[in-house]
Amino acid sequence: MKKRGQALERRIRRLVGRAIGDFGLIENGDRILVALSGGKDSWTLLHVLERLRQRAPVSFFLVAMTVHPGFPGFRTDGIGSYLREKGFEHHVVRAPIHETMLEKLGPGDSPCSLCSRIRRGVLYTQAAELGCAKIALGHHRDDFIETLLLNQFYNGKIKAMSPLLRADDGRNIVIRPLVYVPEDDIGRYASLAGFPVTCCACPSCGDPDGKRVKIKMLLAELERGQPGIKASLLAALADVEQRHLLVKMKNDVPEMV
Question: What CATH number corresponds to the domain at position 43?
Answer without folding.
Answer: 3.40.50.620
